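Q: What changes when adenosine-5'-triphosphate is included in the input?
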Amino acid sequence: MVELKQVSVVYGEQHALRRVSLTVEKGEFVFLVGATGAGKSTLFKLLYGELRPTEGEVWVLGQPLHQIKSRELPYLRRRMGIVPQDYPLLPRKTVWENIAYGLRAIGYNESAVRQRVAQVLALVGLNEQARQMPSQLSGGEAQRAAIARAIANHPPLLIADEPTANLDPDTSWEIIELLMRINLRGATVIVSTHNRAIVDRACQRVVAMDRGQIISDVPHGGYPIELDRLHATVML
Amino acid sequence: MIDRLRFVVMETWESLTRNATMQAAAISTACIALILLGGASMALYKLDAAAQSLPSQFEANVFLKMSTTREQAMQLKTQLEAMPEIERVALTPREVAWEQEKQKLAGEVNLADLPNPLPDKLTVRVRDPAMLPAVSQRIAQSPFVEEVIDSRKELQTVLELARLVRWIGLGAGGLLLLAALILIYNTVRLTIFSRQREVRVMALLGATLRSIRLPFVLEGMTQGVVGGALAATLVLFVAALISDYFVRQWPFLKDMPPGLPPYVLMVGLPAMGALIGGLCAWWATRRHVHI
Ligand SMILES: Nc1ncnc2c1ncn2[C@@H]1O[C@H](COP(=O)(O)OP(=O)(O)OP(=O)(O)O)[C@@H](O)[C@H]1O
Ligand SMILES: [Mg+2]
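A: The predicted holo structure follows.
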């Protein structure tokens, strides 16, 4: 489903990723954890083709993203649900319009749009908020709306970059539960987070990054101790 | 299909209403540029028609000296025919001219017994009316030639006017068109920047590059079309006023050949605006919209 082979990304002088290799199989639920600047968003951008690797290979849904033609990229992205870290929603559109917008942009007709928007709103529990503007939503509701839009096209792969940022523990857990529910319906899910408590509680595969490298990868782990120690060193 | 169209139109509309001042600036510059171009082409068309309709605008009458012999006349004719600017030369021998004259005046005056006062005449036809003055001047220098008569002065005036209109109208119009190009490019660029989130969201959801760029291109085309339509209306209105005024002053102008038909401007200027606006916008999206 997802495979990175010896991938490096260099911004100018700086190595954002250093020879990273990672494989995610169909149906997995993967946490990507690591301190700020570890390279989580950079890795995600590789997965949806917003960034090309300086070195190495990136395979997603059977496609070589390191050499994909930009003409083919949109069709690959239609098979991924993407929740970006910053500005996931369009500020001038209601929740309903935000989700409909994406479906219209890829050519759904109006009746299919109406039907599908209602379904995903029910799935994420935002029926009540359908007509609200993003500025009127709580952080958790906004994240759920962004997830609803990402899964509207039934993607087999869902990528969410820090959907629990700035949320209280309960709301964070609700979001993760939602993602796990989507995972149980068959989608492969990769999610990045800083939130130690939910990683511990979810008991899923955890991939930890630090300064552009993968430092641990455990199948049913909690938040890695190594990272704690690293944080401690940084603190000192 | 209908839904698709509606989506694109809505997106374009959103772009157009995003920054009213910039839109107004782009549209009015396009409008002024197209007014100049439209006005200039109308005036040029009219002047051209006027030049075409001037009598003997292609022809000069060359009257030879009485001392010139028929052989010399034939020789001059051959010489002139060899000039590249000259299309054809006809010789009217003095006897023939005299016969015609006598016939024309028959019944009024009896010319029968008078000696023939007319010289041989060459009628020279040039390929391009603009060449006539220069050609006439050269022919006049021949030792066999008494006088060259053409409609040089009238023609000169019309041609000069046409040149002036061409330079002013097309020159200034072209410059302003360039300004319009830059303004439309810039407006579309600003819209792109102000809609970066939409662009990114559409791109991440898998919209094709073409469908993301299309609304911006349509925005540029709309600016051009609106500018062009305004320009056509204004040009036609002012042209009607002006020609009304002139005809009232000089009624003989009624006999002038008709000008450019209005629909040419009504269609041409908006089409030109659309083309130019679309091209600029397309260029702006090529540089600033990526997925
Ligand atoms: N466009 C860019 N130009 C230059 N450097 C960049 C760029 N984007 C990211 N970086 C650098 O790459 C490194 C990894 O950044 P990245 O955004 O992947 O971190 P992250 O793990 O997502 O952090 P956070 O948890 O804060 O989101 C950082 O050091 C960052 O400064
Ligand atoms: Mg990040």
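Observations recorded in class: The pocket of adenosine-5'-triphosphate (ligand 1) is lined by residues A 11, 14, 16, 34, 36-42, 85 (CB under 6 Å).
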